[in-house]
Amino acid sequence: MQRRQSSKTPKQPLQIHHKNQTDLSAWRKGGRIDPEKSVQNHQSPTNQKSDSKQDSLEQALSYFEKVQDHVSLKKNNVLQKHLITVESIALQRGLPPEGFDVLLNVALSGKLADTVNTRLLKSLVPASVIPETSVVSSVSWLCVSKCSGNIQLLFLRWLITMFDFIDHKEQLHALYGFFFSFLQDEKMCPYVCHLLYLLTRKESVKPFRIRRLLDLQAKMGMQSHLQALLSLYKLFCPELVTITLPGKMKTYFKNSEGPWKAAINAVRRRNQENSPVLQPLFLGTAQPQSRKRKWNTQLIIPASSTNKNNLEEDREKNRVDLYSMNESFPVEQLQTFSQLLQNIHHLEFPSQMGSVLTNPLLLHYMNCTKDESIYLRLYYWMGQTLQEECTWCVADNNQYEEEFKDFLETVYKTECFLQEGFSSCEEFLYKSLPLWDGFCCRSQILRLVSWIPLSSFSEMKSHLYDPLAQLFFTSSLYFKCSVLESLKELLQNWLNWHVIHLDSESDSQVHSLNTTLSGLVNVVAELIHFVGWISTVALRLENNPTFLLYFILDFYETVCDMYLRYNLPLLIMPPAGVFYPALLSMDSVSLNQLCYIMYRYRTNLVAAKENELSKTKILQFKFSSQTYQEYNQYIIAMVGCLWTSSAFQKDIHPQGLRMDDELLKKTTVQEFKTSFNIVYHPAMMGYAVLFLQQAWPDDTTFNFSLIKGKKWNWYLEYLYAQGLKGLKVFIESSINRVSQASHSKAGNVQV
Amino acid sequence: APGLVPAMESADGAVRTLPSIGRLSRGPTFGRAHGRFGLSPSGRLLPPAPRSQENADPQRTAFLLRKQWTLYSVTPLYRFSDAHLRDYARLLSAFIAAEKQKGLAVEVGVELDIKVSVSSLPDLKGSDQDQAAILVQLSSRSAASSKNSEEKLIWSGWFCCVSGDDLSENVPEDFTCLPLFLANGGESYTSIVGSWFQKTFDCCFRRLAISPLNLTWMAAMWTGCKVDKTASAMELVFSVPCLPQPLNISYAIHPEDAKALWDTVQKTPGEITQEEVDVFMDCLYSHFHRHFKIHLSATKLVKVSTAIASAHCDGIIKFLQSQYLTGVLMLLTELAISQIQ
């Protein structure tokens, strides 16, 4: 029975979406993992499955850590089991970093048969990164030659393929000499060359190494792998390598990606599915697209990289290198908020604006720049991507619904972060809503609706309200509630925008306020009328469920406070089709919510009246007398229904409860006059029963008429204590109790 | 940079001129141009095709004819400059080399297998506001001897904008409007070149399909054009939907008959309306129905070929007459712009 707390405590005008604002402490790029998402992931059933897999992998790893020499695979079921575990997990999800040390050690130590070692090496597919330390220790195994030549070769091929996955490479560089010494092995030479090619830096190029390479070439003839390494040496130190090398080669190295490539791709695709947003940060550079699709689709948000398209500036920079103060700070290096603050004066947006979506620091920067071109770049990119990838507008796209969902989610989060809607997103909604089935990506689409920017009504009606109404009337109760929720958010976003706009423009553009404000008032009024209309119809269609009523009244909780909380000279009463179902609801929650709303309407109207009377400033807008009239009609009905038991007599609303005594007598309901007050109202009767039980524990006749006089006041206190705070503020404000003792004399207040 | 200032002002101005209220978002306003949602306008002016070619040498654009071009729409290029075409060629060729031999270090500027040239085609313009078309060509050098080997053109693509004022008037000066891209050659090269442009100029490529409605426009517009020589037949290809096996219907019409029919339909010279196009097509359909008892209006128009050009609904076009090149490009530019906006 506890009523939601928030309706009693006035909300702050600027409602910040806390869950979507980035936590300051999480601004480090590495820590930018959505906590919500990771929590969700852990709860999903698939991941529970993976938890058990995790256990078996740990068992397998600890087995391999302790395994004794010369265990035969054929005879040992335990070894077979653990080997299969490692293989299946590696190929599906990749291995965690901590697994590599154990498995490389066992595979290169020669403890087990080569078939086992081969299978182990082939399954060394990383889920994220490979720790450098495990590679270093495996190189030391290589030096003591405990394993066979084939395993050595396989290990080198693995190392070449996985080179980019190794988390650091400093220690590996320190082993350059060791790798170089392996060149003398004829079989290993091509792979070692490839590895050295990857490792070589300028300081690695030494005269004795060049001599050694030339000796090898003299011995083995022109080998493409040796030439590759030599040409790289020559590139770094042309003065040391004086021989002429043939101009170009088709391929220097054999493809060593071999057995791992498919697995890496599978794992990568899996990781990508789980978190497409983080994917571009994987290894720091954009990964090639795994899906075999149109090359121009960019659902994968590009990685932030510095705009290299500055040929002109580059040249100028060379000339005036001394004054390189305005050198821009590369976005790749932007990792922390303090870096942003320090470099904000010479930061440049990335070459592809789309990448800002996943970079909160750049979004902050975007928020404080006035350059319109960045919005235009984002507009084109986002508009094209949304249209191209829309799963219900483009045929054959439906298999990518999950990816599209994630993309929409990212766009929505960005809008929350920036506290403004993207016009590309607005256009996308207008184009796609008429084709939408109301099901595909539902929550994402409805959330995006809440960020539609304000625009003139003719567009809103045909592009948003009409298609939305069609879906609304023909869809489930849950869908209806979701639409109402997002329209409430939309209204709040508009109102917040108005409040901020009012503050920032109050000094400079007072003159244009008149037209601006009337436009805004019209658009907001149309939205509220639209919601009033669909709410009325929905309540009838669904037969007044409390659940739906809750969402409708929630919307009106914002509407009733627009004047005071958002400084908007507009108040619109709910239609009778909403008011009466709430008033006659069987549920105290709805009734209480309605009481709170009517109390806020009263507060707002009284404030408006006072402002009008004091005439301290010329008011451009007055509430029409019709608003006051409507309010008064409702308040008479409410007081009649909750207090004076005169609902049937006094209600003057044309769609109200007024009924002739003759007609009421025909219903054969006894004492129809008292059927509606805080004791007899169906929503309140339960409280009255509980109250009677507590006040007269021995009386089992449920004599409700006992609740009067002093008991009436006790009953009120009892109701307030039960959490009906809306009722409390309503009764205290709207019912003028002439005498505390006599409830019958209470009257209503007209404003 | 100081160059940004006018751009900012003009963008600001666009926002300020909104009829009633400010907006909750920055960026271009919705539905600014006509042709919103890709709908065709109800009428089009015929391009003054032969006249605008006066100062252009047909030889210079002749290589664009009789090739199949795949159409793309391209959003405005950010910080693209005509002055750097050579640099772009150099960077693009390094990019292609890097893409082709992934994993190997590539030196910028050295001789590579594939030569890239980026050049300007100043003839392909509709109005003075249009940006000159940009041609990208990839040619391979045979590996045998690098000195006197022949260069073989393996891929070409060009960006153009013919009377694209709708778009170019509305973007700040940092952006270059070349909304139509046409490619001929291997898709893998299109992908590499397109990716490079997307990365470098923050633009988006999208395949540009031609709707059956727009194909009927082409059929009508091209029928009305004068061609000197004895022209080839006009051919319309229809595909019949909802059949287990695909079935195409080819409808060939003698060009003079088609022209005669069109002349009876078209009221104002130099201007075509949607109604006229509909009447023209309906006449063709009813003629076909009289002979074959098939309602072509229930099928989907997939291809239109005339002596001027041929167009397929998948977004493939072949130009046949150099004097009408800009006229066809003007319509395609319009379609590309409506896909972008």
Automatic annotation (TrEMBL), chain A:
GO biological process per UniProt: CENP-A containing chromatin assembly; mitotic sister chromatid segregation
Positions of the UniProt region annotated as Disordered: 1-55
Xref: InterPro entries: CENP-I (IPR012485)
Record keywords, A-Z: Centromere, Chromosome, Nucleus
Gene Ontology CC: one annotated term: inner kinetochore
Biased composition (Polar residues): 40-49
UniProt-annotated location(s): Chromosome, Centromere; Nucleus
Pfam family, one: CENP-I
Major site of localization recorded for this protein: nucleus
Protein family per UniProt: Belongs to the CENP-I/CTF3 family.
Name of the protein: Centromere protein I
Organism of origin: Eudyptes chrysocome
Lineage: Eukaryota, Metazoa, Chordata, Craniata, Vertebrata
From TrEMBL, chain B:
Domain of life: Eukaryota
The UniProt record lists the keyword Nucleus: yes
Pfam families with a match to the protein in the record: CENP-L (PF13092)
InterPro entries: CENP-L
Keyword Nucleus annotated: yes
Keywords from the named record: Centromere, Chromosome, Nucleus
Signal sequence coordinates: none
GO cellular component: chromosome, centromeric region; nucleus
Localization annotation: Chromosome, Centromere; Nucleus
Family under the similarity heading: Belongs to the CENP-L/IML3 family.
Protein name (record): Centromere protein L
Species of the source: Eudyptes chrysocome
